Each structure stands twice: as structure tokens, then as C-alpha cells.
Amino acid sequence: MTVRTMENSADITATPVSNIMVVDDDVTFCRVLSNAFSRRGFEVCTVHDSADIIAVAELYVPDAVVLDLRMPGVSGLEMISPLRSINQDIRILVLTGYASIATAIEAIKLGAVYYLTKPADADEIIARLHEKDGNPTAPVKNEFLSARRVEWEHINKVLMECNGNISAAARRLGMHRRSLQRKMNKHPVRR
Question: Are 95 and 69 a contacting pair, CB within 8 Å?
Fold first, then answer.
């Protein structure tokens, strides 16, 4: 865990100071994002191990959390409710390199305020954390999904219904567990 605070920063008056906890098992990514937030006047805490998330949040009591969806040992989705029980006004943004419609919907249902795919820069993350409501003027893309992307979305939906249990999802999908694991370890198919 790393905690950084900004004192006497010129950005403090321009940007309301808040505490942001960055949760990701990629140490380099956390350092880069943490530095970017610190330069913008935020107090930042980083967590790399899923076992430490709740303990650090109870100690640090962040106003906002940037939460990786896939971490060893636990899904970021499983951490949303416990984080919200620590601070009911917490603003949770789920950040992932493995985006799917099913996980985005589930994250929002559980109380995340936003769901972004990597790569996302600090300014975009901060803007989303400060949004009170969604943006009704955002353009809607009417793109058709490829057959491979539809398969990816379906697999993620079944996996969500099985609470992340790969063996149960594989049985429901009629495939071997290892085949499903290989598919899940690949990055999502682009549209």
C-alpha cells in the first residue's frame, strides 16, 4: 500500500480535494495513475492485493475508488458492496481491460457510478468520478457486434450467472473447463 498526500499544491483550489483509492494488481499502472491524481491535487492510496482492499478502505475511508475488475483472488464486482458499506457515498469506478456488457450492467447494479475500459487516462477517470448522473447527450453508437464478440458477451453473462465459477459456467455452456479458461484469459474481441 502506498499513500501520498499533496500539500500546498496550486491545483488544490482549482480541483476539490478528495481521497481516491486505486485498486489494481498492476503495480506500474497504479503508480502512474496515482502520480497523475496526485499532480491534480488528490490524496491517493493504492492497493495491489485483493486481500487488503477492505482493511485499507476502513483505515483510509476514500471518497472514491478506481477498482480493477479482474484481480487475483477476487472480482472487483465482489468488492463494490463491502466498499459501499464503509462509505455509502463512495464513488466507485470499475476499470477493466476485459469489458463486457454483462459485467458493466452488474457493476452499475451493485453501486458503481461508472465502468470504463483500459486504457483510460486520469482526466477521463476524474471527470467520470465527478459526474452526478449519466450523460443523456452522449452519442449512442449503433454498431453490430461480430459473432466472436457476441460469444464473448454470452460467456461473460453465463459466468456472471454462475458467480464466477468457471466449472459451473463451462457445464452450462457445454464446453470443457480448460477451453473456457483459455477463452476468458484472452482480451475481449473488439466489436
Answer: yes
Cell for 190? 473488439
Contact present, 179 and 155 (Cβ < 8 Å)? no
User: Containing H/E element for 184?
Assistant: helix 177-185
pLDDT band at 13 (very low <50, low <70, confident <90, very high): very low
| Phi (first) and psi of residue 79, to 5 degrees | -90, -15
pLDDT at 4: 37
Taking 60 as the threshold, does the pLDDT of residue 61 lie above it? yes
Our separate counts of H helices and E strands in the chain read 9, 8
CB contact set of 37 (below 8 Å; sequence gap of 6+): 20, 22, 44, 122, 126
27 touches 68 (CB < 8 A): no
Give CA–CA dist 167/181, Å, rounded.
Answer: 9
Cell of 136: 443523456
- All three cell numbers of 30, joined, read 497504479
- Dig out the grid coordinates for 28 from the structure: 506500474
